[in-house]
Amino acid sequence: MQAVFVNPAYREPAPVRHLKVLRRRRMKEWPEDDRPREKMLATGAASVSLAELLAIIINTGTRDQSALDLAREVLAYCGNNLRELGRLNIRQLRSFPGIGLKKAATILAALELCRRRQQSQQREQREVTSIPEIADYFRSLLSEHACERFFVLYLNHANKVVHEACISSGGITSTTVDPRIVFGIALEHRATRLLLCHNHPSGTLRPSKADMSTTRRFQEIGRLFDIEVLDHLIVTESGYHSLREDGAL
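-> structure tokens emitted (249 positions)
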């Protein structure tokens, strides 16, 4: 009979436990009433939340996040503020895991579409009747931009807008405006009045020396062509400054 030697340090191995891996359900696996796209189609766009609208635009999430979770993360970063969302650029959007170049471009396109829709509504009345009214229009147009942009409204003698143009887009603190471009467009559209406007990304409404110099130069050139400079507006997110209301024109 053969002896069997047992190592006293030997221990029976612990039984293998098969853990159940919990997989996060994708949005298309949710109940139909909880899916943003299906909810919007069933009850109308007004019934879905801001996060759900953004989730529809994002379309797909990641392995760990649904599109709705991703939308909530983006909105939380912006303080749930649409204006702040509109300030995000491609690089900032792509910093969120799950948002690549295509999704970032889609989000920016949707925001630009909303911005242009708002502008088109404001353009329906094409006659300039008051400075505060036109300042509100330019604030919606320019306040979200991080660089200075210079716009001109071209008017006829009845103060009806015949053309609108962004003349230049510069840096954070300044932009260069070529009067030859401005007055060339005016002559092309037979405009007799100009309304100038640019934004100050810094938030200050005080006109700079360059602002005053540019305005005076445009007035002098305008007299040669019998084209009047009605006003020069400076706009920020918080308000506007009119050189005419200030007595500088």
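The mean pLDDT is 83.
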